[in-house]
Amino acid sequence: MNDKEIENIPRHIAIIMDGNGRWAQAKKRPRIMGHQQGAKVVEKISRECAHLGVEQLTLYTFSEENWQRPVDEVQYLMNLLKRFLRKERKNLVENNIRFCAIGDLERLPKDVQHELQKSIDVSYNNDGMKLCLALSYGSRSEIVDATKKIAAQVAKGEINIEDINHQLFAQNLYQPNMQDPDLLIRTGGDMRVSNFLLWQISYSELWVTHTMWPDFAKEDLLQAIQSYSTRERRFGKISAQVKENHRKIIPG
Ligand code: IPE
Ligand code: IPE
Ligand code: MG
């Protein structure tokens, strides 16, 4: 299968990039080797998605819970992130990618925050794919933060309680105009969402692979998109086929 055979490209793909440690462990290498290889895959898959015409790619890069890992692993990941941001900046420009980041970014080391800002600034006018890294990200915290922002607006009299609806709530999440992911991919085989985009994935299509993130290739991406493109998204309604036959089912 090649990219030309896929008709229905998801507008927004979100990926839980899991399995770096197990990939390294299987090769009897330290976990950080998995992270290093994982960063290369991020570069490759971002470019593929941009070329396929995906509008947004959101990558779960470091969770709020990941701060609890051993200090040396966290330190390595922060340095890797810094190097990745510096190296990838040229590709953002060359591939017309607009960069963004979501999460509790103030918790990140200052030099990482600085590199993030540079990538955001340099790619600000690009109008191709949006690449969003979820960093120090936890969905429950995002939801609590949104609730606090809304409560403050009510307290100041800027809005009424009756004004609070799905749309207003989404406007107060980390990335206000983000459209919900169409497809959520998880590598590494675990069937869980690990505190990722809980509000936004209400109706996303899920695709889990046993492939570890450092081995994730263009073929895996195309396979996920292929699976997505054959699904009927009903959003709670009855399927088009059933609707067609509906009159026959309900007598009278
Ligand atoms: C994902 O790989 C990367 C991060 C969470 C930072 P892991 O490091 O979780 O790898 P496994 O799941 O232990 O194999
Ligand atoms: C999810 O992977 C977070 C990222 C990919 C950044 P984890 O390895 O942290 O998730 P759990 O612990 O398996 O749920
Ligand atoms: Mg993991």
UniProtKB/TrEMBL annotation:
Binds 2 magnesium ions per subunit. Pfam families: Prenyltransf (PF01255). It is an enzyme of class 2 (transferase). The active site is at D18, N66 (proton acceptor). Its EC number is 2.5.1.-. One of its GO terms (biological process) is polyprenol biosynthetic process. The keyword Metal-binding applies. Catalyzes the condensation of isopentenyl diphosphate (IPP) with allylic pyrophosphates generating different type of terpenoids. This is Isoprenyl transferase. It comes from Uabimicrobium amorphum.
